[in-house]
Amino acid sequence: MTILIRPLRRSDETEWRRLWTGYLDFYETSVAEEVYRTTFARLNSGGDGEFRGLIAEWDGKPVGLTHFLYHRHCWSVANVCYLQDLYADPDSRGKGVGRALIEAVHAQAKADDIHSVYWMTNRDNETARLLYDRLAKVTPFIKYVKAI
Question: What is the pLDDT along the chain (148 residues), one digit of tens a residue?
Fold first, then answer.
């Protein structure tokens, strides 16, 4: 069995919703139906500055997803890539799905002349961090959010 990573398609909406709901549940949060609809439309728009989505398939069944965005950066002339969401079904974890998704984002960014991919995770997400520590360098930055 092999992992296939491919772009998100409009026909993936049901499975995408299932996977993204699993991701949101993992982080003990939820979003309104309007956010589901808007996010899926944005992921499929192909517009400049919009998020892109990838699906991981295992034996033809969607088992993971990632969302990523290219954006400008004040410390570089080149754009950077923010990998915002990464999720693998619990039954597929430990089988290379997360690694394959990260590597696919990295390969796409490289093909698009992007020189840096970054992401964040919860400091308590120890299992994922074992993978992340092998693939990238952890930074000392801490994220702050102030609601408006």
Answer: 689 999 999 999 999 999 999 999 999 999 999 999 999 999 999 988 999 999 999 999 999 999 999 999 999 899 999 999 999 999 999 999 999 999 999 999 999 999 999 999 999 999 999 999 999 999 999 889 998 9
The vertex-107 CA angle with 106 and 113, nearest 5°, equals: 90
Q: Answer whether 67's CB lies under 8 Å from 53's CB.
A: yes
Burial class of residue 67, CB neighbours in 10 A (0-12, 13-18, 19+) = buried
Q: How many CB atoms lie within 10 A of CB 19?
A: 23
- Torsion, CA 66, CA 27, CA 47, CA 7, rounded to 10: 20
Q: Are 65 and 52 in contact (CB under 8 A)?
A: no
Q: What does pTM read for this prediction?
A: 0.94
The radius of gyration of the chain from alpha carbons, rounded to an integer in Å, stands at 15
Q: In this structure, which amino acid lies at residue 137?
A: K
Classify residue 96 by burial, with Cβ atoms within 10 Å: 0-12, 13-18, 19+: middle
Cβ pair 55, 12 in contact under 8 A? yes
